[in-house]
Write a structure and sequence with these properties.
Blueprint (H helix, E strand, L loop, with lengths): L1 H13 L6 H9 L16 H23 L4 H28 L4 H52 L7 H64 L8
Helix pairs in contact: 3-6, 4-5, 4-6, 5-6
Length: about 240
């Protein structure tokens, strides 16, 4: 009976149903089937070309409306101006504190907290800018795909473009996609400038935080020297 059981187990392993090395070898010997290649998208029928081109123009109008009612860049700019002025004032005050040499541990810790607050305020001011740039990235990718799709269709239907209405539809569609991409890039440009300004403010905050850390470390060392035991004591 034991021999029969061992024989059944050996058959299962040989067939690839066992555990351990036998199963692993069988898996290695059978390559995983490759994923089927995605079939290229066929071009639409000729009767659909003109309506699709018109629909693309309508989508451009919707894009224009979305971008026109987007982020208030001037409001963000005013926030950055105010933060930059604050940080400039912090720079002057912190420099005077360090040069004077008369500051406490609480003074240094207070400046660290103030600068942390400025960094958090900057992050809040920049959040809608980053959200808008992320949205523009999505729109740019979408309209790039549309432009490339129309370019492929134009190539696939080269023989049919002798008909003027079809040729005009392709010109309109490709021009519409390029206008959409140009509009997206034009919207992104001032936002990237705001992002650059915010990065400069953040760099200034980081520099001041480093100075505050130095003051904090020196204040901590001063407390230790004043509260520590004398180096030599009387016998």
């Amino acid at each position: 009976m034991q021999r029969a059981g061992r024989w059944v187990a050996a058959v299962l392993v040989a067939a690839g149903f066992g555990w351990g090395a036998a199963g692993a070898v069988r898996g290695a010997e059978e390559p995983r089937a490759a994923a089927p290649a995605e079939a290229p998208e066929p071009p639409p029928g000729l009767s659909q070309i003109v309506p699709l081109a018109v629909g693309l123009e309508q989508d451009l109008a919707a894009l224009e409306a979305e971008l026109a009612h987007g982020l208030d860049r001037e409001a963000v700019g005013r926030q950055l101006d105010a933060l930059a002025a604050q940080v400039k004032g912090y720079d002057k005050a912190l420099g005077e504190l360090g040069r004077g040499g008369r500051y406490s541990y609480e003074d240094a810790a207070g400046w660290k907290a103030t600068l942390d607050g400025a960094s958090a305020a900057l992050e809040r001011a920049l959040a809608p800018v980053q959200e808008t740039l992320d949205r523009l990235d999505v729109l740019r990718a979408e309209w790039t795909r549309r432009r490339d799709r129309w370019a492929r269709w134009k190539k696939a239907l080269a023989a049919e473009r002798k008909r003027e209405e079809i040729a005009a539809a392709f010109r309109t569609a490709l021009d519409t996609a390029n206008r959409a991409l140009a509009r997206i890039d034009a919207t992104a440009a001032p936002l990237l400038e705001l992002q650059h300004r915010a990065a400069e403010i953040q760099a200034a905050i980081q520099r001041l935080r480093s100075e505050a850390d130095d003051l904090l470390r020196e204040a901590r060392q001063g407390l230790f020297r004043r509260s520590g035991p004398p180096m030599f004591t009387a016998a």
